[in-house]
Amino acid sequence: MRDTPKGGAGFSGAASSDGKPVSIGTVLTLLREEFPEVTISKIRFLEAEGLVEPKRTPSGYRKFTPADVERLAAVLRMQRDHYLPLKVIREHLDALERGERVQLPAPATPSRDLVEGVHEPGAERPTAARIGRAELLAAAEVDEAALADWESYGLIVPHAEGGYDIEAVTVAKLIADLGRFGLEPRHLRAVKAAAEREAGLVEQVVAPLRRHRNPQTRAHAEATARELATLSVRLHAALVQSALRVRL
C-alpha cells in the first residue's frame, strides 16, 4: 500500500484517532463529516479505479489505514472542489508521491460537459449536445427507414424541439451491429426497458444530492450519476456473461 503524500493537494482529512486500520463502514462515517453524499458504493468504485488500495483480512474484509482515509478525502475533495476526472486525480496523486509539487486549478463552476449526460470513462466528450437527423443518419450509416423503425420501438427518441442527444449515435450504431446478427428492434425493447429501470435506480440515489442547497453538492450529483451508470453497465455485462456461461 502506498503512503499518502502530504502537502500540495491538502491531504488533511478524517482518520481513525488511534491509527489502527478501520472497516469500510467506519471510513464512510469518517468521510461523511466532510462529504455527506459519499456512499460505500462510491468508496468501492474508487478502489476499483485504483485510487485507494486497502488491505484485506484473511476473510476478505477491507481494512483502511489513516493514510487510505486521507487519500480518499483528497480524491473526493478534488472531485468536489475542482471537478477533476479520476484520471487527472490519479496523475496528481502519483506526482505528489514522487515528491513533485502539484498546482490544482482554482475551484470552478460545473462545466457544460459535466451535465450533458453519461459517458464511458476516458471517452472523448462530444463538442455538441445535440445533433440533427441528417447528422445522425450519416454518423450511424443507416437509412431513413431503419431510423424510423427504431423510433417506432422507442429505441431512439428525438427531443420534442427537434434533434437528438449525441448518445443517439452510439445507440444507433449498436442497434445496427446487433441487427447484423438477426436481432430486430422488437427484440431490443427489453434491453431499453432494463436501461430505463437502471436509470431510475441511479436517479433515486442522486435525487437528494440534486435538491441540496450547496451548488457544489448539486454539481457533484452529476459526477455521481456517471459513476453509478458505469458500475451499472459493468454489472449488466457481468450478469450477461454469467448467464451465458450457465447456458453453454
Name a few traits of the molecule.
MerR family transcriptional regulator, mainly alpha, two-stranded antiparallel ribbon, MerR_fam, 248 residues, DNA-bd_dom_put_sf, disordered N terminus
> Rg from C-alpha positions?
21 Å
Strand order of the largest sheet: 1-2
Strand content: under 5%
How much helix, percentage-wise, in residues? 40-55%
Number of helical runs?
9
Structural class determined from secondary elements = mainly alpha
> Ends: how far apart?
40 Å
Give the biggest sheet: 2 strands, antiparallel
Q: What is the typical, i.e. mean, pLDDT?
A: 79
How many beta-strand segments? 4
Q: Helix and strand succession?
A: HHEEHHEHHEHHH
What are the segments in which pLDDT stays under 50 over at least 5 consecutive residues?
1-16, 108-128
Described by the principal axes of the CA atoms, the overall outline is globular
Descriptive report:
This protein is mainly α and 248 residues long. Helices cover 53% and strands 3% of the residues. The chain contains nine helices and four strands. The protein has helices spanning 24-31, 40-48, 66-82, 86-97, 133-140, 144-152, 167-179, 189-210, 215-247; strands at 55-56, 62-63, 130-131, 164-165. A two-stranded antiparallel sheet has the order 1-2. The radius of gyration is 21 Å and the shape is globular. 23% of the residues are buried.
Please describe the topology of this protein.
Layout: H1 24-31, H2 40-48, E1 55-56, E2 62-63, H3 66-82, H4 86-97, E3 130-131, H5 133-140, H6 144-152, E4 164-165, H7 167-179, H8 189-210, H9 215-247
Antiparallel strand pairs: 1-2, 3-4
